[in-house]
Design a protein that fits this description.
disordered C terminus, 9-stranded mixed beta sheet, alpha+beta
Length: about 325
């Protein structure tokens, strides 16, 4: 199972972003229309809602839609307002012991993975892993605020935005966990998600976001794929969300656990998943070090190291199933 992972530095949207859009648009178009054209909100509704809830990044949206050709369908897709459903696995931990970091595994279908880490400077310098061409699955800004998402384990849908664009907005406009909490409390989401975050002061938060309901701030460092009670038994069993959460909590509570030893656990079962045939295989592990503003993307046999001061454009091919139990050199 081979995937490519491409690190791109483009401070303002231009040719490199256009290349990403053109490469992925045929697949996103198929997904966006999977329930029919009329199932999606119209352009005026989609764009006006984005401007209402995230006005600071609306000019960026307008520039991106122009770069994408300015078409009605492309503009509606890029608003990320009321998109079709999508689900992933994922485990994440807000580490606030001797240092501050946000570490996570992203478990998803490799055929639907952009495989792009983008270093941009739209409103703030941001390094993050791209989704829907301008949203983020996880990321950190130059202030040291790091945020990541997991699916919340519910079939319920509502009126709101796809979570990747809200993550992008939070990192573009916030510097602290408190500021980011206010963003996630204010902006509606279309599906259930769990969001974890840290900042350099050692503040952390995990939030349970549910469509058409107030966001909940939960006193836990850990996020997997449920929100307290299990409401979708088949999904919970498939992804082993309870087992993963208990595993992380147990080891985080161990006083002898370090950042490095914890990261090694993310690279092995039960956190590292090989369920690619079920679309829930681990595509990458990432550690955002909020204390020193560095980013480490990891697989069992490979590591990419990046930072705001030294971001290297490179592309690697990764065998996701290779040597899963090998020792990671760190």
């Amino acid at each position: 199972m081979i995937v490519s992972f491409n690190c791109i530095n483009e401070q303002q949207p231009d040719e490199k972003w256009v290349g990403l859009f053109e490469k992925t648009w045929p697949f996103y178009k198929k997904w966006f229309l999977s329930e029919g054209m009329t199932a999606r909100q119209g352009y005026l509704t989609s764009s006006s809602k984005l401007e209402q809830y995230m006005p600071e990044i609306f000019p960026i949206y307008e520039k991106l839609t122009s770069l994408a050709g300015g078409g009605d369908l492309e503009s509606r897709f890029l608003s990320m307002y009321c998109p079709p459903p999508y689900m992933s696995g994922c485990s994440q931990l807000a580490w606030t012991k001797s240092s501050v970091a946000l570490m996570r595994n992203y478990d998803y279908n490799p055929k639907m993975f952009e495989g792009v880490m983008l270093y941009s400077n739209w409103l703030k310098p941001v390094i993050g892993i791209s989704d829907c061409t301008w949203g983020l699955l996880d990321g950190m800004n130059a202030d040291g605020l790091a945020v990541s998402l997991t699916f919340g384990g519910s079939k319920k849908m509502g009126t709101g935005f796809g979570i990747p664009v809200i993550l992008r907005y939070a990192l573009e406009t916030c510097s602290t966990v408190k500021e980011a909490q206010a963003v996630f409390c204010r902006i509606p989401v279309h599906m259930a998600y769990n969001v974890s975050m840290v900042d350099p002061a050692g503040h952390y938060s995990t939030m349970y976001l549910t469509p058409n309901q107030p966001a909940r701030i939960v006193d836990t460092h850990v996020g997997t794929n449920h929100q307290g009670e299990i409401v979708w038994n088949e999904y919970a069993e498939l992804t082993e969300t309870v087992k993963r959460k208990e595993f992380i909590e147990e080891h985080y509570a161990n006083e002898d656990e370090t950042v490095d030893s914890m990261l090694r656990k993310f690279l092995k079962p039960p956190l590292y998943s090989l369920k690619f045939e079920k679309s829930f295989g681990t595509l990458y592990t990432v550690n955002y070090n909020s204390s020193n503003r560095t980013v480490h993307v990891m697989w069992p046999t490979k590591t990419l190291n990046q930072s705001f001061e030294n971001f290297v454009e490179e592309k690697v091919l990764v065998n996701l199933k290779l040597n899963v139990h090998s020792k990671l050199s760190m």
